[in-house]
Design brief:
Shape: globular
InterPro entries: KDZ (IPR040521)
Number of strands: 4
Helix content: 40-55%
Mean pLDDT: 80
Strand order of the largest sheet: 1-2
Length: 100
Amino acid sequence: MDDGKTKKSWGIYNETGIFVAVCRHGLCLLITDMVQSRELAKYPLAVVAKLLDAFGDSLGGGYDIGCQFETTLNNSSVGPLVHSFHHTCLVGAFHGHVHR
């Protein structure tokens, strides 16, 4: 691959950081380089889909906006997969207290 063309093509993307999924033991399960786009939920949706594909039934995922993300997840194209695999969105104790 031509390094000059590669550098030029990656230069058009506005990189915003990384998106990481870790297990409860702190092991990195997935990591991706994020680029700015209009679809804000694409990274967590892709992570949930990939984890369900890899690990299967009865997973729980904690996310800092888990309450809002659950609605997004259910309304997305990943929604049927989430329901069939009994995925649960987890919310931190402090954030859960705020909703009370």
